[in-house]
């Protein structure tokens, strides 16, 4: 097949692929969605691209044949197939035509989505269709997303399909494409577990099924369709990579918290959402070796729980002291599981400390953190590697307490939460800032700035929805591709050599030098 024929085939198939991804993602395509699709093919007044206008009648002509191929399983509609078709169609188009075609495809997806939402009913949205459209938007707008998805698609064509038993993958037949170790993916909620009165665990599987590869202690960023927009939040992965079929996050309901309340009230088994990651460097895998002392406060239990599960699953002699602080007995997350682990593993011991309980309410230790209390619970703490996670004030008390007690801080690692992300602040602002410009290729914005400005700050200040979390170069959530020009970093902690080779930058810590084009 010649390149020209490839392209002419791809442009005819592309609207059908987009339609099937959105309308049949839940396996329940409605008459309303089909009518909308037919109308879009028949009346292309919504379409500005000359190429697409010419091909829509051909899509309408071939619709029946494409549908039969789809039903017979001969038409791939996974995101890799869409990415490959997009890459083929958009390649070598002049940039102006490319932009018009991209806008048309986004508009096409939105119109199908509208029909999906109408089917869902008043005041409801078709969550699966929204997730599909978000993923398609990413493929349409971002060349790097297309390259990644198309590469996975090519690999999947050369490997035997993994067998499926009750939806689970079998490791012996899995190929590279069945392992998720980075990037965006679609998740399906498998179950929701009540941990305490205000904490739930959400278990997910990948769609299509994949094994989750990450380091215990890392986190993912969930993308949630809330009130008609996508809201991103980062949550620690509470499951262990030693059990790679399922990825879990454990979330505390926060008063007036948009995302935590949505997750608690709306997310149910079978619903889909997108996620990116894994991110973060707080992990026992790359840190000081055991014996270990895990100290957590409140929701800070999640990364150290993942580490404990990992170590007990994979190391025969894991020696762990686990000390968890919470306000009241009913606030202890994972209490039953931790006590069970203590009963099963002779080198695992856990203690639960209540800061606000009376002796009638709690027979264990009571009080706020103090180094004296910690040394009572873990008398050999000086010989252990400490991993600490909790609210800012709590972690600061523990860190200072350990340091003052002469603890070897090279065997100490911590992660805190509670402080709202603030604008990236320069650690070494150039004294002689020069004029610069950032071109945001996906958003189509060109912003004049200076070489002292961070890419992320400029993006957010100009209404560009750029993913971010720590804004300090530590988590990696803000990674994006520098398509042209040079960026100067003042911290590359969360970039790997491979990232740098691929042209990735940390938007929160990168400043433009001259003109910088980024994939945002
Ligand atoms: S937002 Fe965390 S590294 Fe940039």
Structure description:
The chain has helices at residues 3-23, 31-42, 50-71, 79-90, 95-120, 127-141, 143-157, 258-266, 301-314, 335-344, 371-377, 392-404, 455-461, 497-501; strands spanning 164-165, 168-169, 179-180, 183-196, 199-207, 211-212, 219-226, 229-236, 247-252, 272-279, 292-297, 320-326, 348-354, 385-391, 412-417, 435-440, 445-450, 479-489, 504-506, 510-518. It starts with a helix and ends with a strand. The protein has 520 residues and is of the alpha/beta class. The protein has four domains: 3-157, no CATH class; 164-279, Beta Barrel (Elongation Factor Tu (Ef-tu), domain 3), CATH 2.40.30.10; 292-417, 3-Layer(aba) Sandwich (Rossmann fold), CATH 3.40.50.80; 435-518, Roll (Ubiquitin-like (UB roll)), CATH 3.10.20.30. Residues 1-5 and 158-165 have low confidence and may be disordered. It binds FE2/S2 (inorganic) cluster (FES). Residues 468-471, 473-478, 494, 506, 508 line the site of FE2/S2 (inorganic) cluster (FES).
